[in-house]
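Board notes (copied after class):
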Amino acid sequence: MTRRSSSGTLALVAAGLLLMISTFQAQLDFTAPARGQKSVVPCSGGGRFAGRSDVKPPMSGLALASGEAPALSGKQAYFTGISWYLMHFIVSIGNDSIMKFLGESIPPFQVVFLRFSAAALVLLPILVTSGKDAFKSARLSMHAVRGALLALGIGLWCTGLNLMPFASCVVINNTMPFFKMLFAQLILGEKVGKQRWLASLAGFLGCLIVFNPTAATFQPKSLVLLLSACCFAMLDIFNKKYSTSETITSMLFYGSLSTAFIAAFKAIPGWVPVTSSQLGLIAVLGVGANFLLFCLLKAFKYVDASATCPYRYTEFVLAAIFGILFFAERPSASTLMGSCIILPSVIYTAMVETRLADEASPAADSTEAASA
C-alpha cells in the first residue's frame, strides 16, 4: 500500500473516530456516587452482588441530581455493558491504525507520550469550564498506579516485540483474560463461573489458530510478555474497582496525565521532530484514547470485569472486518477457522450469562414476588 493510500485510509479512520466521539462531551459524568451509595448494576453470571435487592443500577450525574434511578433488568444491563466493551475494541482498532502509521517515523514511547498528553489536553478545556470540582479526586495515588501499570505494560510489550516473532507475542499477550479472571476473583470477589473459563479457553484456541505460532518461537524471554499481560489485566481490575466511585472525567484525565509523565522518561532522550500533519493525527489519537477508556469504564459499570474476558478474542474478528472495509484485505484461512471457534464461544457465553443475569436480577425477583 502506498503512503498516499495509507494517508487516505487514515483520514477515513480519523473521521470515523471523530464521528463516534461527537456525543462524547454530553456523556461525560462529573459527579461521583456519594460515599456509601450502592451504584453497582446487578452483576451478570452470579457475581457477589447477584440477587441483592438493595443494589441499584448506576446513575449519571443528571440522574443523581434529579433523584431518578433508571431500572435495568439483568439481561439489559449485560447487553449494555458488553456493547460498550465491544465499542472499545472498535475505537482501539482505529487508534492502533493511527499509532502504527505514526510509529513508522516516531519512536514508540514518544508516540505513547504524545497520545496521552493529547488525551489530557483535550479534556483540559472541558474540565476548566466545568469548575474546580471537575478536578477533584479522592484517590490521586490510585491514578498514578494506573498510569504506571499502563506505561509498564506498553513498555514490556514493546520489549517483547523485539525479542520474539509478532504472532508469538500476540498469543502470549492474549493470556491476559485468564489473569483478569483470576484477579477479579481474588481482588474483586467476583464469582467466575466455569462458562467464562471455558469460553475464554475456546477464544484462546481460536487465537492460536489465527496466529499459528510454533513451539520453537517461544523462549524464556517471553516472560516479559506474560508480565505485560499481567499489567494490562491488573489495570482493568483497577478500572472496574473504581469505575463506580470515581468520576469518569477524573479516571480519564489523571490516568492520561500519569501515563504521559511516566512515558516522558523514555520519550525525551530519543525525541524526533513532529510535523503538523502528525500533530493532527496525534490530536485525533488523544480524543480516541479518551473515548476508548470511556467505553471501557461504561462497560464496567454494568458487568463484572471477568464477564468481558471471553469477548477479548472478538477483536480478531473485528480487525478482520476492519481490514476488509478499509484496507481491502482478504482474511486468511486461519483467521476464518479461528473465527469459527471464537464466535460460537461468544454466543454460548451470551446465552448463559443472560440467563444467569435474569435469574439474579432484582427486577425478576420483584416480578416473582408480585405474582406470588
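Comment from the instructor: The chain has a mean pLDDT of 75. Residues 74-102 form the longest helix (29 residues).
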